[in-house]
Amino acid sequence: MLLEHLTLPTRLAMPNGVPLYMLDGADKGVVRFDLLFKGGYAVQNKPLLAMFTNRMLREGAGDFTASEISRRLDYYGAWIDMYSSQNCNHITLYTMSKHFVPLLQVLEEMVKCPRFPLENLDTVKSNNKAYFTINSQKVDVVSQRYFEHSLWGDDHPLGHVVCAEDYDAITRADIQDYYNRYYGSCNCTMFISGYVNETMLAALKKSFGAETWGCKTECRPVEVAKPSPQFGRCKVSLPGTMQSAVKIGFMVMDSMHPDFCKFRFLCVLLGGYFGSRLMSNVREENGYTYHIEAELDAYGERNAFMITSETATDNVELLIKEVYNEIERLLTEPVGSAEIELVRNYIMGELCCEYEGQSSKSEVFINTLLSGAGFASVNKYIDEIKTVTPEDLHRLACEYFHKDRMIEIVVGA
Known about the structure:
This protein is α+β, with helices and mostly antiparallel strands. The chain is built from 15 helices and 13 strands. The strands form three sheets. The chain has a six-stranded mixed sheet with strand order 1-2-8-3-7-6, with helices on both faces. Strands 9-13-10-12-11 form a five-stranded mixed sheet, with helices on both faces. The protein starts with 9 loop residues before the first strand and ends with a strand.
């Protein structure tokens, strides 16, 4: 299957220095607009603070109450996603291009003039705490929390296992301080994709690109504790559950490493599609699970390799044994050319779907920007997939798959 190189985003510099990356395309009049603010979990001094600050932007700003913001979005058939990652706070607006300008006015108020009303904060905290309590009874969610704890260690911000008390500890003063430190033009990057015209660009320039606004100091990379992985088995008891969750993995190379693209290929071959080795063995041949997968999870520039599954408690050890059997096969048996071609075609097909629309392309380019790999790495991956060899995969397996450097998390009754 042929897949051409993607056209890279165009970079426009706003008068105040905020970079705007643009992927222009018809997309039937739909537009996606992203505001990225440096910061994220890495700079918070309390667990959950970045998430709550970003989330509270829509709870009242300027002349708009939270209800008025919601009604305005509903009226135009638009929605806003807001989330935080390790090094960044994300705000994403999806709307029709013809409604972009009036909605941009709402977004500008949210970002520049949030009020953080205390009564709304109490409600948001209560709702999120209730959601946390419900999720704390789900083996897959709990296993992810403890995997990240073992991955990063006790002293790293991402190693903290969130508890209910963390929700209670967040105050309005905490949120206002975090906002004052990290939300401003000096920390902002903008992406826009879809149908974009001159009127929309002029509105963007006026709202976010003309004058400096917000915090005065750019967020620099902060010195946090280095990852301190805790290898070996961690068993977490969750009484009353019907199944156990299993996660096996380790920290791998960053996204700029020359091995990264081909390691992604190896990950798909092992457990990244329905016909993968893990699915064929653990599900089809042995019936230990309904689903098992291998994936790469990004934490800024760093990446973690992770195998994830759920199974009956009695089958946990059997499932783990077969996982290591499949890893051993990669260490001792060369991968056949036919299997490589099958995986290559699968990846190319998935990429064709992933790169079909401007919005999804924008997501890809944003992720590469945050990973530090640069936009050109998207096309590098396409090239690397076309040229991967059995020797490449054997070398990568031998170099990175070491049982004594694996983290194992088992959560269940």
